[in-house]
Design a protein that fits this description.
Blueprint: E1 27-30, E2 35-38, E3 45-47, E4 55-60, E5 65-73, E6 76-79, E7 93-96, E8 108-109, E9 111-117, E10 130-134, E11 147-148, H1 154-157, E12 163-168, E13 182-188, H2 192-198, E14 207-210, E15 227-231, E16 237-246, E17 260-264, H3 265-281, E18 287-290
Parallel strand pairs: 9-18, 11-16
Antiparallel strand pairs: 1-2, 3-13, 4-5, 4-7, 5-6, 6-10, 7-8, 9-10, 12-13, 12-15, 14-17, 15-16, 16-17
């Protein structure tokens, strides 16, 4: 499957029919402001190393961005497993922060190890999650680092119709170029059964969907691995999802009834904690499945 990251396409439309927020409507509920955000009122925001100090770019040896990621500690990055489908060694990529203007040209670190979920399936993108261990920490405020939503809090934070904010440098249209600056946009969370009805791919318990039923604003190519955030927690941001793919086919972005598919962070948070504890003690210095030799059921 192709990498389908986040295209924040700024084409807005008016609506005459507004269904309930829990059924993939043209608005979402913003908990931080206690108000509804209509699609036509959605604002594509530009960020930099001050407003999104935890956002990272995964870039090739030449510095070309290919995926996003999010710091969950000053030396740990949560991202998508499929970002490493065509990478053989840790020497083939680097990790960079945004700079002052929002480009993916800020401070950089080298990876020390990569833990890919042992049940990751590159044909279905089930368990599409990985943790990158950096050779040394980024010097950012640890209080600003977002938290992963634990399974026990999933029902409260993954409420259909709520706004979640996606971040990325991905293509700004299906056949367009990368965004020169880090962008974000608010998208409504979908009910899983509603998303499965419109998806061209099977959905799993480890997935959630976000996007407007009308399309128009979405994630797109080369936003994979970037975070989907909910306002809350000690830092003000909780990671609800990681950009994985689309419910459409052929790299489609922002199509009607084709929301984005994200890896549900609450479903993999315990795996991430176990992988972090193990790799802290025994760094692999490579790209490794964790745990190894685990077959998908």
């Amino acid at each position: 499957m192709q990498v389908f990251p986040i295209a924040l396409i700024a084409v807005l439309a008016m609506f005459t029919l507004i269904p309930s927020a829990g059924e993939s409507s043209p608005f979402c509920f913003d908990r931080s402001t206690s108000r509804q955000v209509l699609l036509q009122d959605s604002v594509i925001e530009v960020h930099n190393n001050k407003t999104a100090p935890w956002m990272v770019s995964l870039a090739g040896e030449s510095g070309d961005h290919f995926c996003g990621g999010v710091l969950i500690n000053t030396d740990l990055v949560l991202t998508a497993a499929h970002c490493f489908d065509e990478i053989d060694t840790i020497r083939e990529f680097q990790v960079r922060l945004p700079d002052r203007s929002g480009r993916f040209k800020g401070l950089k670190r080298k990876p020390e190890s990569v833990a890919i979920h042992g049940r990751y399936d590159d044909s279905t993108l089930q368990f599409d999650i990985a943790v990158v261990f950096l050779n040394r920490p980024f010097l950012i405020d640890t209080n600003a680092v977002p938290r992963m939503i634990p399974m026990e809090d999933a029902e409260y934070w993954e409420r259909p119709g709520d706004c979640a904010k996606a971040f990325g440098w991905g293509n700004t249209s299906e056949k367009g170029r990368l965004s020169k600056k880090l962008l974000s946009v608010s998208l409504p969370l979908w009910r899983s059964d509603e998303c499965q009805k419109v998806s061209d791919w099977p959905l799993y318990e480890e997935n959630l969907c976000a996007g407007y039923r009308a399309g128009l604003i979405d994630t797109c190519n080369r936003d994979s691995g970037g975070p989907l955030m909910i306002s809350g927690g000690p830092s003000g941001n909780l990671i609800v999802g990681i950009v994985s793919t689309t419910t459409g086919t052929g790299g489609q972005c922002a199509r009607p009834d084709k929301p984005g598919i994200y890896t549900k962070v609450s479903s993999i948070s315990e795996w991430a904690r176990e992988a972090i504890a193990d790799f802290r003690s025994n760094p692999s210095n490579s790209i490794t499945r964790y745990p190894e030799n685990v077959a998908n059921e």
